[in-house]
Amino acid sequence: MTTVIKNGTIVTADLTYKADVLIEGGVITEIGQDLKGDKQLDATGCYVMPGGIDPHTHLEMPFMGTYSSDDFESGTRAALAGGTTMVVDFALPNPGEGLFEALKRWDNKSTRANCDYSFHMAVTWWGEQVFDEMEKVVRERGINTFKHFMAYKGALMVNDDELYASFQRLAELGATPMVHAENGDVVAELSAKLLAEGNTGPEAHAYSRPPQVEGEATNRAIMIADMAGAPLYVVHVSCEESHEAIRRARMQGKRVWGEPLIQHLTLDESEYFDKDWDHAARRVMSPPFRNKKHQDSLWAGLQSGSLSCVATDHCAFTTEQKRYGVGDFTKIPNGTGGLEDRIPMLWTQGVGTGRLTMNEFVAVTSTNIAKILNCYPKKGAILVGADADIMVLDPEKEKTISAKSQQSSIDYNVFEGQHVKGLPRFVLTRGQIAVMDGDMQTQEGHGEFVAREPNGTVNQALSKWKGLTAPRPVERTGIPASGV
Ligand code: URP
Ligand code: ZN
Ligand code: ZN
Ligand code: ZN
């Protein structure tokens, strides 16, 4: 059985040209003129692009006393509806728990995925077990990216000694550390002060996490990675301070990548002020939304290449869950949704306004991500041999975003009322049609795990350090160094 996508314009990260795409057995088998297939999809007037990759999701994640409400089924259905054909989720060990124990849970949850997926491993504590298991996780499980939380003190946060030890180990294994960069100590101080002064509402969340806490942590993580000889991926870059640190590091020849979110690019801090409690709380996430100066910085970063990819950090909580924080903003579950809206919002506000070229759009939503995470060209490419994860985007198709018609299982949408122009006509996941003219045809369980080899990058500036071995943790504690 072959499928052919006919009469479209192929748009990749570096080329735009007219050609048909032939698919068989889930992969692209031919690209050319006048191709024939058993089944024909008409892409006249449309752009044929690599399906989006979302490098940052939290599906059914235990967090802040609850679980994020979209699971691998609804989350990947939302992804496909919006032209995203692969998600990368974070497997989160409980403090003191082994990496493989956590992976077992993520393996179970992800059996319901409608599209392909991969995992980043979170490093939530440090000890011999983590040190030892990291090697197998990298070499046998095909997970080459490890996330460290520099915030959420008393829960997920790891300290500088743990960051340094973990980064050294990852450099040795050829894997890439990632950071949630906010100074967790300062956030905890500011939060306590705000609460003590009677600021209990969701707007205080924004005051408790100013751009400086993010800029400081990003700089610190970059320097620690430098000392460890490791590359670094900074998630949810929301402000100029953090972007500036990344820009400078890249200028100095370091492999440091920054990932802004579609939310930070398109929504600003006014969402928290003079709004009803529910409205503001639904938009509570870390880092919080910023002002226009920071948004302009993020757009400039995508244009110049100092920022590499656009994610969602999809971590959706219902209004009822958000209300756990009535009377104390620090108890509002942090996170927002965006999986279904990332591509239409970025197309509309990026390509539609002239801020991004179509090729830059493909780079930041798909190809750059596949390259950094090391699953290119299986993913992120329209090439013979690549997986047929394809989005056919109709630039004339438009809608107004509304929770009423979304796939996500929560009861609101942070982009409610936004008009978008440029929507998927077809979405294919490994050759199988998941979306056809707005009609969802997803198949639960179709998604497969994508293994990613270590890419072995070290920072050139410190390549002379290569060959140093990472120090083993001194004692077996099994206790999270940062406590819980
Ligand atoms: O507020 C957020 N971003 N929630 C999800 C967890 C994280 O920090 O990425
Ligand atoms: Zn985070
Ligand atoms: Zn409202
Ligand atoms: Zn996140």
Describe it.
- The chain is α/β, with parallel strands linked by helices and 484 residues long.
- The protein is 31% helix and 21% strand.
- The chain contains 14 helices and 20 strands.
- The strands form four sheets. Strands 3-2-7-17-18-19-20 form a seven-stranded mixed sheet. Strands 8-11-12-13-14-15-16 form a seven-stranded parallel sheet, with helices on both faces. Strands 5-4-1-6 form a four-stranded mixed sheet, with no helix packed on it.
- Helix 3 (128-139) runs parallel beside helix 4 (160-173), helix 4 (160-173) crosses helix 7 (211-228) and helix 7 packs parallel to helix 8 (240-251).
- The radius of gyration is 21 Å and the shape is globular.
- The model has no long low-confidence stretch (mean pLDDT 95).
- The chain binds N-(aminocarbonyl)-beta-alanine and zinc ion (3 copies).
- The site of one zinc ion (ZN) has 4 residues, from loops.
- The site of one zinc ion (ZN) has 3 residues, from loops.
- This is D-hydantoinase/dihydropyrimidinase.
- Keywords: Hydrolase, Metal-binding, Zinc.
- Its EC number is 3.5.2.2.
- One of its GO terms (biological process) is nucleobase-containing small molecule metabolic process.
- It holds the Pfam family Amidohydro_1.
What is the topology?
Elements: E1 2-6, E2 9-11, E3 16-18, E4 20-24, E5 27-32, E6 39-42, E7 47-50, E8 52-57, E9 62-63, E10 66-67, H1 72-81, E11 84-91, H2 99-110, E12 116-122, H3 128-139, E13 145-149, H4 160-173, E14 176-180, H5 184-196, H6 203-207, H7 211-228, E15 232-234, H8 240-251, E16 256-258, H9 262-266, H10 277-282, H11 292-304, H12 319-322, H13 342-351, H14 358-373, E17 390-400, E18 419-429, E19 432-436, E20 439-440
Parallel strand pairs: 1-6, 2-7, 8-11, 11-12, 12-13, 13-14, 14-15, 15-16
Antiparallel strand pairs: 1-4, 2-3, 4-5, 7-17, 9-10, 17-18, 18-19, 19-20
Bound molecules: N-(aminocarbonyl)-beta-alanine and zinc ion (3 copies).
One zinc ion binds at residues 56, 58, 313, 315.
